User: Which sequence fits this backbone?
């Protein structure tokens, strides 16, 4: 069976995703031992499963015989059974049982197996060439790791827009002054601060710094008028971002508070994005509900509107007006465009 | 940003609309002072707004920076603020505030401004070349003008079919004998009367005349058996129509009653139409509820069915059977086809 | 008017159906005397009607004048009236009344008339060339015929998948062991039995035979451990199938029980199928409710999933893994592919 994406861009071209890259397919906690689940990633139907020994794996979700979704079948003892005609596959995608006729198993009776690494509480899969899948290239999110999984508070939303639009949104925090003014309380500070972006390898970092009133989210200092605030967003291909935030009272280095959180955008289709987010240890659980609300009802609504206004057109085809606050997002888009072009050669 | 329509015909071709023409975008009463609204016109997202001094204007609704809908932002003092990153635009579509970095405003930081004229209680916009926008070419609907806006009773419906199908429907009133038999009461009189159509300039007029029982809608004479009835429909590109109706008792010129109403079809997309309608002074308000009911549940349902049966095919591609009652509609289609072809050269 | 299908394959190509073939359009009992109904068949809107003398007929459902659905108009005395402008058509699709102007009826004022035969309780129509429509090629389903129509218990479902996928499902009964294990009770017997398929003319027959426990549906023998079971499926183009089942106790020829049922797949569109089914006389009515439930909630759900996983791709384009149990379905697909290719030459 052709293990290829089936959805297409509105303009008929296949969506171009970077294949040789680690993508978060799910939070590890979404997949308890002995369970399996379907998820569309980069337009491909994928089966995620975890056996009783807690080993996780990812294979194509479509049976090569008659194209049923394996996720609709039973998963037991590390084997998934096709619900239509009973072929069984192991966690590496190999057919291990053919209940028909003489039971012979053809060499090509297999589904694609995706390299999978569980790290920082997330399941990372590699849609590209398996021999190139080096776990060392997974971005370091170790600030998420805490002694106990019970302390984690990962968030997930399906965002109705392209993953690059969703990444742009994080790479330009100035939108908070307008889109999140009522909920997060910034009022021009981010837009007014010169945004400095830089490229390091294939990563991009952009930062903002300003003096003024403490922001709503910076609880210990929010009633103070004289706060130094610094934001930094680091982006790694194809859509892993860390937001770091520091606040401190003017002239009082001891008052320094640091926070960090991840915002990870994995394409589901060309127009929808799996959005994984979590804060570092401080205020992790308190933040989750606010984040879910803001990301869904403010960012999600905006990104869906932008996606609809773009219709089937590409970003550059829209001839966007570029502002100073776009520098990080534009750098990241250029990196990604270059990596995808290299891969398609 | 490309200020172009995004929707396409089912067959992949861009829908061809006449650009250099005045279109009703809204009734003036839909847009109170200090408000703004979005409307799709000829497949383009457009922002209509009216400031506190009652001046109305129309500009593109998509921010050239990151493609948010301006209609989702605040409108105050004649300025609309983009809800995503805070750019502000005046009523001519010029960016007047960039809250980012050094605040410089690029020359191309603007959205398309549409010539707009408010006349006969309607907001007319011109999607074509601004220098060709001559308000003298707006059809004369002055019979709608009354001393006080409080006397007006304009109607609006979104019709789920192409605007030319909706115009055809008005240009062939004989459908009333069948589609509206139960509600309007004609029973073959219009179909039986020879329909005479003529071309005058780029306008088309078609008329029907018959003797018989007074129609339901002609209240003063409806119980009489011996009534002379005359209908006349005048069409102006791209879809402005006036229906004029005269009834009089046979041999009694003093019994003559005249009515008139407008039926205006503005394309929203290739398959949906903004339908604006209103009667002249007589019985204006009494008629509105009946009209809304009939146009939505009888004409609207029929036109949606016709549109569905056509699929993505064009009218001529359907090789329609032409009857005598089609003469006005066919003349109008030929005028419009010619005007659109001229414009596309 | 072009009497052509309007829907397209996802990949833009028109779906290829075999035209010169009898298709079941409806059960006869769906169309009482004096009624008419619309049905989409092979992507074409078709009007089925039966006059008071019980004669049934099928014509195109789209008025050639302005493309209204004739099914929305009145049907009386064997004439259907277009609900939009009142043209009347007889059961052969000829316009017999034009209420407009001088009432002249053009030669081309007609809709396509489909050869129709009522046989075995079903209305069979022929979408191809009328002169080739020989009722002798209707498969013999006379085992359905019983003395009284009151004894019939025909079933109908709209299946959300291509008709060939629906036929494949019947042509490979081994899926029962997995998909219907809980409802029908087979547990590997069909998959384990070698499936023998053979071609006879343009028909295909495949059979299974095994010894073991009596199946749930074989009520008289279901509690016995030593049962010989035989299944046979015969397929006739484009999608008429008969399932025959025989059971008997080992060494007891007198215990032989036979059952038979029809499973008829008529394409509605490329992705939806009219599924007509009925059992022969034995246990006919008792079986109907179980069949409706199983076919809708088990087969229908599975076929919809398979269709979705195929996206817009064709069956062979999916490069299916072929198993021994596929032999009947593959033979039938090859016959149909050949017949369609011959027709398109």
Assistant:
């Amino acid at each position: 069976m052709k293990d290829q994406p089936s959805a297409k861009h509105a303009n008929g071209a296949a969506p171009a995703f970077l294949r040789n890259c680690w993508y978060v397919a799910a939070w590890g906690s979404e997949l308890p031992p002995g369970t399996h689940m379907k998820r569309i990633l980069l337009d491909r139907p994928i089966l995620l499963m975890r056996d009783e020994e807690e080993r996780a794996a990812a294979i194509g979700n479509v049976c090569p015989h008659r194209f049923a979704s394996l996720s609709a079948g039973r998963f037991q003892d590390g084997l998934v059974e096709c619900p239509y005609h009973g072929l069984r596959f192991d966690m590496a995608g190999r057919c291990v049982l053919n209940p028909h006729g003489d039971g012979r198993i053809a060499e090509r009776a297999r589904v694609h197996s995706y390299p999978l690494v569980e790290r920082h509480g997330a399941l990372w899969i590699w849609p590209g060439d398996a021999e190139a899948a080096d776990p060392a290239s997974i971005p370091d999110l170790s600030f998420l790791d805490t002694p106990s999984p019970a302390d984690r508070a990962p968030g997930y939303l399906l965002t109705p827009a392209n993953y690059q639009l969703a990444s742009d949104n994080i790479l330009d925090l100035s939108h908070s002054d307008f889109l999140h003014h009522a909920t997060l309380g910034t009022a021009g500070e981010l837009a007014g601060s010169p945004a400095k972006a830089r490229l390091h390898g294939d990563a991009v970092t952009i930062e903002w710094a300003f003096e003024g009133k403490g922001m709503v989210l910076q609880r210990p200092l929010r009633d103070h008028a004289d706060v130094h605030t610094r934001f930094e967003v680091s982006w790694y291909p194809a859509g892993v971002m860390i937001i770091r935030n520091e606040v401190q009272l003017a002239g009082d280095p001891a008052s320094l508070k640091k926070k960090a959180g991840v915002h990870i955008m994995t394409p589901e289709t060309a127009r929808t994005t799996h959005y994984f987010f979590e804060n570092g240890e401080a205020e992790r659980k308190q933040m989750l509900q606010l984040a879910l609300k803001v990301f869904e009802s403010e960012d999600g609504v905006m990104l869906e509107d932008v996606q609809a206004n773009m219709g089937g057109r590409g970003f550059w085809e829209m001839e966007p007006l570029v502002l100073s606050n776009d520098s990080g997002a534009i750098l990241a888009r250029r990196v990604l465009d270059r990596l995808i072009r290299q891969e398609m050669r």
Summary: The domain at 157-344 of chain A is CATH 3.90.380.10 (Naphthalene 1,2-dioxygenase Alpha Subunit; Chain A, domain 1). The radius of gyration of chain A is 22 Å. The longest strand of chain A covers residues 257-269.
